[in-house]
Automatic annotation (TrEMBL):
Full protein name: Putative type VI secretion system effector
PANTHER family recorded: CYTOPLASMIC PROTEIN-RELATED, PROTEIN HCP1
Residues spanning the membrane: none
InterPro entries: Hcp1-lik_sf, HSI-I_assembly_Hcp1, T6SS_Hcp
Native organism: Pseudomonas amygdali pv. photiniae
SUPFAM superfamilies, sorted: Hcp1-like
Top-level taxonomy: Bacteria, Pseudomonadati, Pseudomonadota, Gammaproteobacteria, Pseudomonadales
Any Pfam family: T6SS_HCP
Length: 212
């Protein structure tokens, strides 16, 4: 089945001309995987016992484009990328997005460029703290989207990672530069985020301001 694949990396625009993914990085392929260490020692259920999950780097391939120089630079600098997003779209006029991968807390672990004939090819490896995947079902009747199936893993804490966790981490990131007066004007927002605020992490939200 033919598909188009695009990756979005903050501050590193590509040359994709697709209407929905303009300035994303068009890629030719990708791979990542999971290894679950097991022990021959039987568990209480009778089967082999498992250990800590090991996930490989997320690797993608692409042709030389406007993103190449900044990808190399970010790898050299060990630049921390808040989020990297991959989407797969079915080839055709509607370009239905049927698979999405979101990586958080990302570093470009390896960057390789090579050429022998034709356009130079690049291989980029991303090391990440969390991964979230979403598969979108397609209705047989009209080919439109018909619901999502999700799965994810938090490599930092070695546990499942859901969109609820993704939304919470996004809120925490945004709170770092939020003025307390916003919550004074928006009581609903204050109630929503109250449980996320911790004084050591957000000292400017832990005290009231007298000035207006």
């Amino acid at each position: 089945m033919a598909f188009d694949a695009f990756i979005q990396i903050a501050d590193i625009p590509g040359e994709a001309l697709d209407e929905k993914y303009s300035k994303w990085i068009e890629i030719t392929g990708y791979n990542f995987g999971v290894n679950q260490s097991t022990s021959a020692t039987a568990s209480s259920s009778g089967g082999a016992s498992s250990g800590r999950t090991t996930m490989t780097n997320f690797t993608f391939t692409k042709y030389l484009d406007s993103a190449s120089c900044k990808l190399m630079e970010a790898s050299c600098a060990g630049q921390h990328l808040k989020e990297v997003k991959l989407v797969l779209c079915r080839a055709g006029t509607d370009k239905l997005k049927y698979y999405e991968v979101v990586l958080e807390e990302v570093i470009i672990a390896d960057y390789t460029q090579s050429a022998s004939a034709g356009i130079p090819i690049e291989i980029v490896q991303l090391n990440y703290g969390r991964i979230k995947t979403t598969y979108t079902l397609q209705k047989r009747v009209d080919g439109t989207a018909g619901g999502n199936v999700t799965g994810g893993w938090d490599r930092i804490n070695n546990k499942k990672y859901s969109w609820h966790d993704h939304g919470r981490s996004t809120i925490l990131h945004q709170l770092q530069n939020t003025d307390l007066r916003f919550f004074e004007r928006q009581p609903c927002a204050a109630k929503e985020c109250q449980s996320q605020i911790r004084r050591p992490q957000f000292p400017h939200l832990g005290r009231r301001r007298t000035g207006r």
